[in-house]
């Protein structure tokens, strides 16, 4: 656990400096619709990217569980899904606040908003399934299968803006053309994405270790 | 809603969600500690 401290410290430092740059140092956007509200991008986009990364790790570890039937992969899958679920919730909340100022309404049934909402429900179902099965092997097997199917909502969310007309910009034009600030926005965004990924790695390792400890504690009790 | 309020609310919301994530881990650690005592 001590090895986690430098990772967490680096994450906090990057998060603090990135937030300062994004919220204070950068000038307002030249786009009249975005002006100062574009600063939400430094929290909204890293949350979404980190959650997609976490769900990809869940997919890989769930497949590994089904291949090997080694229980550790199920622990990794659920720990990563838990982190991904928190990050996508953060992206949904920050996104709807941004939508209120930029587009006039908290919820617009935009293709990406709808796709991410489906994703949110798919992973909520994953946790509901896990808590409804008592036998560890059955729980691991069924939730791994569901994790594989739930992952279909990740590319759906990412590419939804290309498939249908969307208020969100297409991935190829994000974020620089819409915000027109160039390198400074890009580097700050990169810094924040790195900070969020480090936060995810810290939580993933912490949660997995705690889950292993919990199993050991249960064995000691018995 | 002004730009300032929106940026403040969104930043705060993200930070609260991240804090909540680590609080669940803390709660789990406290449960394990209780079981081992």
Mean pLDDT of chain B: 92
Question: From the helix content, strand content and strand pairing of chain B, which structural class follows?
Answer: mainly alpha
Just give the CATH class of chain A.
Mainly Alpha
> How far do the termini of chain B sit from each other?
51 Å
Order of helices and strands of chain B: H
Q: What is the helix tally of chain A?
A: 8
Share of helical residues of chain A:
over 70%
Strand content of chain A: under 5%
Number of continuous helical runs of chain B? 1
Structural class of chain A: mainly alpha
Integer tally of domains of chain A: 1
Mean pLDDT of chain A: 90
Anisotropy-based shape of chain B: rod-shaped
What would you report as the Rg of chain A, rounded to the nearest angstrom? Answer: 19 Å
**Radius of gyration of chain B over alpha carbons?**
16 Å
Low-confidence stretches of chain B: none
Coarse shape of chain A: globular
Task: Explain the overall architecture.
The complex is a heterodimer of chains A (222) and B (37). Chain A has 222 residues and is mostly helical. Chain A is 78% helix and 0% strand. Chain A starts with a helix and ends with a helix. The termini of chain B are far apart. Classes of the chains: A mainly alpha (222), B mainly alpha (37). The A-B interface holds A 19, 23, 35-37, 39-40, 43-44, 47, 82-83, 86-87, 89-90, 93-94, 97-98, 100-101, 199, 203, 206-207, 210-211, 213-214, 217-218, 220-221 and B 1-4, 6-7, 9-11, 13-14, 17-18, 20-22, 24-25, 28-29, 31-32, 35-36.
Primary descriptors:
heterodimer; A: 222 residues; mainly alpha; Four Helix Bundle (Hemerythrin (Met), subunit A); 8 helices; 78% helix; 0% strand; globular; B: 37 residues; 1 helix; 92% helix
